[in-house]
Amino acid sequence: MSHFDERETRDPAERERELLARLPAQIGHARAHTAAFAQLLTDVDPATITSREALAALPVTRKSDLLELQKGARPFGGFAAVTWGRRCARVFASPGPIYEPEGARPDYWRLARAFHAAGFREGDLVHNTFAYHMTPAGSMMETAAHALGCSVFPGGVGQTEQQLEAIRDLQPNAYTGTPSFLRILIEKADEAGMAIPFTKAFVSGEAFPPSQRDALLARGIAAYQAYATADIGLIAYETPARDGLVIDEDVLVEIVRPGTGDPVPEGEVGEVVVTTFNPDYPLIRFGTGDLSAMLPGASPCGRTNARIKGWMGRADQTTKVKGMFVHPGQVAAVLKRHPEVARARLVVDNPDLTDRMTLQCEATGSVGLHDALIESLREATKLRGEVRFMAPGTLPNDGKIIDDIRRYD
Q: What gap in Å lies between CA 407 and CA 409, rounded to an integer?
């Protein structure tokens, strides 16, 4: 079977109806069973959230917010609908620390779909080199492999010589881990005159450029990647089409202008915001802090869900100018006051080692608009800035709201 299930190839309109129909119950569940959403969504009637437009009116909870909220309310900042017991099988810590629950459901992180697209099947032996200690990556991969009927060797990180010994003895045909550690294993195996038995790989946790993919393929290893987080689980995954990442069937993804909750047009780079239907950890409009963009059309592989380009950088572009923090949200506030500006970015440089802000705007310039923008920028940031008008389509489509190009050499 080339697809994990029939949901992957259903009519896009049917998928959209099903996702939107699930929204009111999930929002109601989050409000009723988590302290955080009881507060964030106090004035929201869940029954009215039946469209993307209605969803876009709800607040975004960003990962940076989650870190601070968890510090004030351990362990989960009031966002989890489970406590210790059977529904919470494990708890993990990501850097920060940010704590994440793992429920007892099979394939809790929903990565089996991505493993299947990467060619993993029942009967495979998977050499798992993601960490099993404290962080969730090892468990994320193992539970996905088990859901497909694979066996797993829990290699974990490091100990290259011992891992190679196990690979020689067990002859696993599949690998999961970072692409850099796979490269190390291959190099060490070559030095030892040992053949690596892997024919398939699922990699994550690092950039995986086409050059690395092609180098592995030349060694007989077909490797695929996915975009997942410890908070959400699977968000999107690569398929044999090698044309963007297909969004998972059980999340609702928006691309928003950094620093805001406002969705951007298709193709424009922005922050990935995800709503999950996980009953244990029901994150609504969770801002990942990652940049990406929606791709037009459907994947050539036959899967009909929307696609994103993949990871394109970080959305949190907060910087400090003359000792004052300047946030993307402040720049967005300026633009909301001046709708005649189509697109803009705040460029920060330091000629003569003196900080300078210039708001570059795609707009038809006028003296009145120039002066109004300078005043709005001063009010939003408490700093003096300059304004420069640009021709439409001049600014790069890279998701940057603040571009810090200062140099100190």
A: 6
**Which segments within 54-204 are labelled E, that is strand?**
61-62, 88-94, 98-103, 125-128, 151-154, 174-177, 200-203
Q: What is the mean pLDDT of residues 270-294?
A: 95
Predicted TM-score of the model (pTM): 0.84
Greatest extent of the chain over all pairs of C-alpha atoms, in Å: 75
- At 1-11, the pLDDT tens digits run 689 999 999 99
pLDDT category of residue 322 using cuts at 50, 70 and 90: confident
- Nearest 10 degrees: CA dihedral of 107, 202, 182, 310? -110
CA–CA distance, 241 with 139 (Å, rounded to integer): 27
* Cα gap 320→340, rounded to integer Å: 28
Q: Residue 323 carries which side chain, given as an amino acid letter? A: G
CB atoms within 10 A of CB 365: 13
CB atoms within 10 A of CB 209: 10
Distance CA(61)–CA(38), nearest Å, equals 13
Radius of gyration over every alpha carbon of the chain, rounded to an integer in angstroms: 23
**Distance between CA atoms of 294 and 236, rounded to whole angstroms?**
11
Kindly indicate the confidence band of residue 26, based on its pLDDT and cuts at 50, 70 and 90.
Answer: very high
124 contacts: CB under 8 Å, gap ≥ 6: 145, 148, 150, 151, 172, 173, 174, 200
Rounded to the nearest 10°, the torsion over CA 90, 95, 96, 97 is 20
Average pLDDT, the chain: 93
Q: How many CB atoms lie within 10 A of CB 152?
A: 20
Question: Domains in the chain, ordered, with CATH?
Answer: 6-314 (3.40.50.12780), 319-404 (3.30.300.30)
Give the percent of the chain with pLDDT over 90.
76
Token pair in block for residue 217: 């393929």
Q: Does the pLDDT value for residue 226 go beyond 90?
A: yes
